[in-house]
Design brief:
The complex is a heterotrimer of chains A (about 325), B (about 450) and C (about 290). Chain B is α/β, with parallel strands linked by helices and about 450 residues long. Chain B contains 18 helices and 16 strands. In chain B, α17 packs antiparallel against α18. By secondary structure, chain C is mostly helical. The longest helix of chain C is centred in the first third of the chain and has 37 residues. The C terminus of chain C is likely disordered. Classes of the chains: A mainly alpha (about 325), B alpha/beta (about 450), C mainly alpha (about 290). At the A-C interface, α2, α4, α5, α6 and α7 of A face α1, α4, α5, α6 and α8 of C.
Chain lengths: ~325, ~450, ~290
């Protein structure tokens, strides 16, 4: 198996190949500088700008109908964000959503990949295309479509279920997170499935032969050979899903007019968007966004730490 | 693998070709600098009103010295306002823009609009009083009213008749009694939807009951979102919700459109523009609709409210052509031909005082036949005339909107009562204003 | 019954079970797409009045399509072209930049390399909401807001692309490179002829990933663009969606527009699927 775990490079430098030579300066600059400049201009600079912005506030006085003044307020915006109960609640909600969405996504994608790869399916190509198609539908549009399917009076599915006595109302407060998770699942499961099928296909067939000779059945092969061997890809898919869920934004934003269960600050990103675009408080918005970014760092690196520690002997 | 290169190359060529065509045409985005070639002043006008280009074309045809380019933008609350604020801050804003009455205080507060008093004071009397007051801050005029949204009651006369109701409800007590009768028609039949998603609707109902949420003092705002009038409205609708007499449902949503078509929701309190929505979505219900004046709290009165006030045209800060921009805004909204066009494209109720020249308001067979040959505009004309001119929109109106919606939603989910939602909004709004440095007092 | 027979029967049951499961999944993934197909044949009135998974009595798909492409002087066509422009050019440049950078990081040692790479990886995690507004003010200082460039330039940066490119460049056998060096090939030549050829699957993956990311982007064009003629599809359809409150026909336009835009992108993805998949193979497993 020629797999070095790609993710590993995120956290450890153990295996960096030291034999690479220190190359000619000209080539190094030519390869890296164009990207570095663009990255500075379109990622680093705006982030620094946002951080600076998050330490200011716009103040008016009296009736608030005179011109605004910009005041330096240190960490006031951060304190304000973190002392707003609804913002804290949105962080908790996001965490809950992560717990629902990540296993749902990873397990679904893995099952689909295993089913397709089992070699028992008729028309595997057609199925692969069908599962993958939703990835081409932008989140805004996917949510508009599911919005129709979530409302009993316009949804053929819910009407069908109601006809056989099952009443489901997906946009109720206690099910709305699942309704949103379903949309993300629909869009990204096929994409993740492709990553995993690709990994499964690259398992050398000798391993299966050997397993067969040892008398291992289907299930045994899955749990003892396939899953352990595609572990790096599963880790990658999990990481993508975590990063994606932390930025949850478009789906609840588009669904929010359809339900009482989604407030304007349902997720931290929505709260930041609401502050910046509806309420014109880009300073507070910047502070909220920085908090989300920091959380994303902590959770992604935390996840990698855990899998690296637990799994190091397996690799 | 060899087939990838053609694929990518083709894409690249298409893309480059496109960028080639477009970069020539679209170099600079905003033309607020304006060129004065041959004495023609170039203006840009940002609006999201569909088909408003027809009125703009009329202006261009009759004004050889000014040329207005329309930029259709995202609706204000959906991001259009945010873009305007950024553009003003960045110094490349359009010259004239569409702004709701409710948002104007925030534009003044952000110093994003020009004081146009000197250009328009001579003709501002053409417009209805309460709308001019909505444009006026510290005795200066900051916009030209375009169209207002006086409320009326659209109702399904066939459904009402089926329930044994012979005339439209004139008071809220009658509305309540009618709600019970209609509810008896079937398990899906309701007199109306409780639109938890519509702050303008909730505010319009409160305004009608006599609420004055914001009063400008000399140096501070008096905030009373939970005043007695509002609480009366809250308790009334809470009663309807508790007794399952109204359907808790977002208006202008998929579900609501369907309910409007099949009569499950039998009435709608809305502005004059609501006509286009009903006719467009439920063409098969033609002849089944009527419009009446809003139900009253006290029989015999004619109190009314608006849906978010109305919509104005303002001159954005930083324009080099404030005089021409003001001329355009004034002409667009007071010239009879232009106003007729605005009415026909559904911009709203005209803001000018004298609407006698607007023929489509007295003779509009397409519209009237849908309402069983009723001249529905009479209702809105009367409603508009009765709007009180002391309702005030505060700064941070979007905070008001999102706080109110969030609180109403949560009061429904947690059954804590609508009155509680207004109490919470009062606290939340005062907090937000204080944070922003705006002085407030309460009663 | 012989053992052989029994095994064959088991295989059959397995085959049927797998196929049923896949059919069920296919129904799930097709459902919204079927819905939008049927919905795009309906008038605004029928959209809500008739069953979702069948035609109405008066299908009017052609009429809807004509309205879609003629509304506001055919602006929808411009949106499709704009989306292709932003995604195509943005992804193309992003791919070139990130592959070169990833290759440079993987094949050479230089001062601050790991810190540089760490910063790039951090970029993957930054939410779009953090960047969009500040970027507006920064781009405005050079008078770019409102132009095609304001959306194109930020789309040309793909930190994730650098990450993938580094992994794949690392997988190129050292011997191949050394052999080329002995033949007297310069570093740039080695990269542009030998390395890129070996990395084709990764390059396609990076390109398509960035293409879809830009295609789906909503916030950046929303902040940057005023002029509707420069909008991409996502923003244009949202604009129409906000106009349904004035003219219900826009509801149908949004639905038909969604169907068309989904099929344009699905068409692109599916036609490139074999390369896409090949890229994934290498993308996830080769270290």
């Amino acid at each position: 198996m020629s797999t070095t775990i790609p993710i590993e490079r995120l956290t450890s430098r153990r295996k960096t190949r030291q034999r690479r030579r220190s190359g000619p300066i000209g080539a190094i600059l030519l390869f890296t500088v164009p990207f570095a400049l663009m990255f500075l201009a379109f990622y680093v600079a705006p982030i620094i700008y946002a951080m600076v912005q998050s330490t200011f506030a716009q103040k008016s006085s009296g009736l608030g109908l005179g011109a605004l003044q910009e005041v330096f307020v240190f960490f006031d915006n951060y304190v304000r964000a973190l002392s707003t109960p609804s913002f804290i609640a949105s962080l908790g909600r996001l965490f809950l959503f992560c717990i629902i969405e990540v296993p749902l996504m990873v397990i679904t994608a893995t099952i689909l990949a295993l089913l397709l790869e089992a070699g028992k399916a008729v028309w595997p190509r057609a199925f692969r295309v069908i599962f993958f198609m939703p990835y081409g539908v932008p989140g805004v549009i996917a949510t508009l479509l599911w919005g129709f399917l979530y409302v009993p009076s316009t949804s053929p599915v819910l009407q069908g279920l109601a006809a056989i006595g099952i009443d489901i109302t997906p946009l109720q407060p206690n099910s709305v997170l699942f309704a949103i998770a379903n949309i993300s699942l629909w869009v990204y499961a096929g994409y993740n499935m492709i990553i995993l099928t690709a990994a499964l296909n690259s398992i050398p067939s000798e391993l299966y032969e050997a397993a067969k000779i040892d008398g291992a059945g289907e299930w045994k092969t899955i749990f003892l050979i396939k899953l352990p061997l595609i572990r790096p890809s599963i880790v990658l898919v999990t990481l993508f899903t975590i990063i994606g869920t932390l930025q949850l934004f478009v789906e609840p934003l588009v669904l929010s007019p359809l339900t009482t269960a989604i407030s304007s600050d349902f997720t931290p990103n929505m709260a930041a968007y609401n502050q910046a675009f509806a309420q014109g408080n880009s300073n507070l918005a910047a502070a909220m966004a920085v908090i989300v970014a920091i959380l994303a760092f902590i959770m992604s690196f935390g996840f990698l730490r855990i899998v690296n520690k637990k799994g190091s002997e397996a690799w | 693998m060899k087939r990838i290169f053609p694929a990518i190359t083709t894409m690249a060529i298409v893309a480059l070709a496109l960028s080639g065509c477009s970069s020539g045409a679209g170099g600079s985005a905003s033309a607020s600098a304006g060129s004065d070639d041959g004495g023609v002043t170039e203006l840009t006008f940002q609006s999201w009103v569909p088909n408003v280009d027809k009125a703009v074309d009329l202006f261009n045809a009759s004004h050889p010295n000014i040329h207005v380019t329309l930029e259709t933008i995202t609706a204000g609350p959906d991001g259009g306002y945010a873009t305007m604020f950024s553009a003003v801050k960045a110094g490349n804003a359009a010259d004239v823009a569409q702004v709701g009455y409710d948002w104007l205080p925030d534009f003044v507060r952000n110093d994003a609009v020009e004081d146009i008093t000197q250009y328009v004071s001579g003709e501002i009397d053409k417009f209805v009083d309460w709308q001019v007051s909505a444009m006026t801050f510290n005795d200066a005029i900051y916009g030209i009213p375009q169209a207002s949204s006086p409320l009326g009651l659209y109702y399904r006369s066939d459904v009402f008749k089926k329930a044994g109701i012979t005339k439209a409800p004139e008071t809220w007590d009658e509305f309540y009694a009618d709600a019970k009768l209609i509810r008896k028609l079937g398990k899906d039949n309701y007199i109306a939807a409780f639109a938890y998603n519509q702050t303008p609707w909730l505010i319009g109902l409160s305004e009608q009951a006599g609420a004055k949420w914001f009063t400008a003092g000399s140096d501070s705002w008096t905030v009373s979102i939970n005043d007695d009038a509002t609480m009366k409205v809250a308790d009334y609708w809470q009663k309807l919700i508790d007794e399952d007499l109204v359907k808790v449902e977002a208006d202008m949503s998929n579900e609501w459109y369907k309910d409007i078509q099949n009569g499950n929701v039998a009435s709608w309190i809305s502005g004059s523009w609501g006509d286009a929505i009903i006719r467009g979505n439920a063409p098969k219900t033609s002849g089944n609709w009527s419009v009446s004046y809003m139900p009253q709290w006290t029989a015999g009165e004619s109190a009314t409210g608006t849906w978010g006030g109305g919509s104005a045209n303002v001159v954005l800060k930083g324009t080099k052509h404030a005089a021409e921009a003001s001329e355009f805004a004034l002409w667009l909204n007071s010239n009879a031909e232009s106003v007729s066009t605005l009415v026909s494209i559904g911009a709203g109720w005209p803001a000018i005082e004298d609407t006698s020249a607007i023929t489509s308001l007295t003779n509009d067979p397409d519209v009237f036949s849908f309402y069983n040959d009723q001249n529905i505009w009479k209702v809105f004309a009367e409603s508009d005339a009765n709007v009180q001119n002391d309702w005030r929109w505060p700064p941070l109106v979007s905070t008001l909107y999102s706080t109110l919606i969030d609180n109403v939603k949560s009061s429904i989910d947690n059954s804590t009562g609508l009155s509680n939602a207004f109490d919470e909004t009062q606290t939340g709004m005062i907090d937000a204003l204080t944070q922003a440095g705006v002085a407030t007092t309460t009663n | 019954m012989s053992r052989e027979h029994e095994r064959e029967r088991n295989v059959d049951i397995g085959r049927i079970g797998v196929t049923l499961a896949l059919l069920f999944a296919a129904f799930y993934f097709l459902l919204p797409i079927l819905w939008v197909l049927f919905a795009s044949t309906k008038s605004p009135g029928d959209l809500f009045a008739t069953g979702g998974l069948w035609f109405s009595d008066e299908p009017q798909f052609i009429y809807n399509l004509q309205r879609l492409f003629s509304e506001s002087n055919g602006i929808f066509g411009a949106w499709v072209l704009n989306s292709l422009l932003y995604s195509g050019v943005g992804a193309l440049v992003a791919t070139v930049l990130s592959v070169a950078c990833g290759y440079g990081i993987a094949r050479y040692r230089f001062f601050g390399k790991e810190a540089f790479f760490g910063a790039i990886l951090g970029g993957v995690l930054v939410p779009a909401t953090v960047i969009a507004l500040p970027l507006y003010f920064l781009l405005n200082t050079v008078n770019l807001t409102g132009t095609y460039w304001s959306v194109l330039l930020p789309s040309m940066v793909s930190p994730f692309g650098v990450y993938l490119a580094r992994i794949h460049s690392g997988a190129i056998p050292e011997e191949v490179i050394e052999a080329a060096r002995l033949d007297g090939a310069g570093e740039v030549r080695i990269f542009s002829t030998i390395a890129t050829r070996m990395m084709v699957p990764a390059i396609v993956t990076i390109f398509l990933f960035q293409f879809v990311t830009i295609w789906n982007n909503y916030l950046l064009p929303l902040v940057m663009l005023n002029d509707t003629s420069k909008f991409p599809i996502t923003l244009g359809l949202t604009l129409w969606n906000s106009q349904t409150q004035r003219d219900p026909y826009f509801y149908t336009l949004v639905v038909v527009g969604s169907a068309v835009s989904a099929f344009v992108l699905i068409g692109i993805m599916v036609s490139l699927q074999r390369f896409w998949k090949a890229g994934m193979t290498a993308g996830a497993t080769k270290g």
